[in-house]
């Protein structure tokens, strides 16, 4: 395999076709179902599926026997299923399956975009393509096919490849288990899983994700009155729903340090992951935290870089992502409000059960409500995290070589603070599979927030790495 030809082919395809396709994809406001209850009626998800499926179909003629189907189970978001038979040779190695995964649904708009940018307004500035969803992770289907097309261009053999692109990931992938079960016989038993929905510590080398946190969360509501009343009349007599809510949250989170209080939400961190966190901190330095858009004078929770890496990868952490029951400032009268609600997002360690954490959280917040207030916690989601199995020697070497070939630097390993429910699901179903989890969400790319961007050179290089590793997988399988 000629790595320079891989680089040239992939880069050319990205420039000529993939970037223009992503520009059109960014224009589509196909928000995940949790953020657009009328996604079916709006039709944006179908538009995104059609765009991706049409481009993919135009490329499948390069592969003998390849097929694409948009699978649509009743009442569920669609899924793109691509099946590319083993290419190049017959015999050993052709009976193994590689699964390549991504998603096409998007997070909501979020405020704070720069004046010349917007979630549905694709803008290219230098090496960056701005707009919602390009990096998280609309590029996945294009990058996966670019990798396989690069192998085909050279006649390099590879095992059977299945590409799965779901449309519910940003809502917790609640539709995906149904599709995995529905397609189980067709998917088979993957030997290698490639996921392109993760992050990178910098844009200078390949980053492999070693773990993903789980997540649970929902809406916490405290109600004290049937209706709002004059604050001058009621304050000092009626407890504030906001104060009670703040008190309840202190059961979960230390308000002074941000540390999660209950020990039930922690796990013992494996020694290897602590060591990897230390090495990642050494590589990244202050980029561990200065990639975030801090206001002037703001500091991270600690100056210990290793602890910061572990905080965002192996420790539980809380974010309040929404508030209800509060009027806007310009219409907030002198009223003691009847209720306050907040949306909680609790990240939990990779090896802690998301379902158990959700049940624990509900009990913790609802029991013994102060003053007898009406307290409800409506659990919206719970998903377990994932801790990668040890890499096989061939994969570890393949990753090292590919990073050096295409990035010109050694590969790096680090956990990620986000969740990819598909990984936990596949890890349970296919415990013998090897996993290559990587992505393009690096410093300042700001997935889910304003000014999200895709770093185009990293997208290209990740596609090259996938091509290299898929080819190396076949070489290894052929020896068995």
TrEMBL record:
Pfam families per record: M20_dimer, Peptidase_M20
UniProt superkingdom: Bacteria
Residue ranges occupied by any Peptidase M20 dimerisation domain in the UniProt entry: 211-369
Leader sequence residues: none
InterPro entries reported in the protein's UniProt record: Cyt/Met_Dipeptidase, Peptidase_M20, Peptidase_M20_dimer
Annotated keywords: Hydrolase, Metal-binding, Protease
CDD domains: M20_dipept_dapE
UniProt keyword Repeat, yes or no: no
Name of the protein: M20 family metallopeptidase
Gene source species: Luteibacter flocculans
């Amino acid at each position: 395999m000629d790595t320079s030809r891989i680089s040239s082919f992939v880069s050319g395809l990205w420039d000529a076709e993939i970037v223009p396709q992503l520009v059109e994809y960014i224009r589509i406001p196909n928000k995940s179902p949790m953020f657009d209850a009328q996604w079916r009626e709006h039709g944006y998800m179908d538009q995104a599926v059609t765009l991706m499926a049409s481009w993919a179909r135009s490329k499948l003629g390069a592969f003998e026997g390849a097929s694409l189907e948009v699978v649509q189970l009743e009442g569920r978001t669609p899924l793109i299923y691509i099946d590319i038979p083993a290419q190049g040779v017959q015999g050993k190695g052709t009976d193994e399956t590689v699964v390549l995964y991504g998603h096409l649904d998007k997070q909501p708009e979020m405020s704070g975009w720069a004046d010349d940018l917007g979630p549905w307004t694709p803008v290219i500035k230098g090496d960056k393509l701005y707009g919602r969803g390009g990096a998280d992770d609309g590029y996945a289907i294009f990058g996966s096919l670019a990798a396989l097309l690069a192998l085909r261009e050279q006649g390099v053999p590879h095992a059977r490849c299945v590409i799965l692109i779901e449309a519910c990931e940003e809502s917790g992938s609640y539709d995906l288990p149904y599709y995995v079960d529905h397609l189980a016989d067709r998917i088979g038993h993957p030997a290698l899983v490639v996921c392109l929905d993760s992050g990178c510590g910098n844009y200078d080398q390949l980053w492999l994700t070693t773990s993903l946190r789980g997540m649970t969360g929902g809406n916490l509501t405290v109600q004290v009155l049937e209706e709002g009343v004059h604050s001058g009349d009621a304050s000092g007599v009626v407890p504030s729903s906001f104060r009670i809510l703040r008190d309840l949250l202190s059961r979960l989170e230390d308000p002074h340090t941000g540390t999660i209080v209950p020990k039930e939400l922690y796990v013992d961190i494996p020694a290897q992951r602590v060591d990897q966190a230390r090495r990642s901190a050494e590589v990244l330095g202050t980029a561990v935290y200065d990639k975030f858009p801090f206001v002037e004078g703001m500091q991270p929770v600690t100056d210990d870089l290793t602890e910061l890496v572990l905080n965002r990868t192996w420790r539980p952490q809380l974010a309040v992502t929404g508030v209800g029951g509060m009027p806007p400032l310009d219409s907030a009268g002198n009223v003691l409000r009847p209720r306050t609600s907040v949306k909680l997002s609790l990240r939990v360690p990779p090896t802690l059960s998301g379902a158990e954490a959700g049940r624990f959280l509900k009990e913790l917040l609802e029991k013994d409500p102060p003053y007898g207030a009406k307290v409800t916690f409506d659990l919206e989601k719970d998903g377990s995290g994932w801790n990668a199995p040890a890499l096989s020697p061939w994969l570890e070497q393949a990753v090292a070589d590919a990073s050096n070939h295409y990035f010109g630097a050694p590969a790096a390993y680090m956990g990620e603070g986000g969740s990819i429910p598909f990984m936990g699901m596949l890890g349970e179903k296919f415990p013998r599979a090897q996993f290559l989890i990587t992505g393009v969400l690096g410093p300042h790319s700001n997935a889910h927030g304003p000014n999200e961007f895709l770093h185009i050179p990293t997208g290209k290089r990740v596609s090259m790495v996938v091509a290299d590793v898929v080819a190396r997988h076949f070489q290894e399988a052929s020896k068995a």
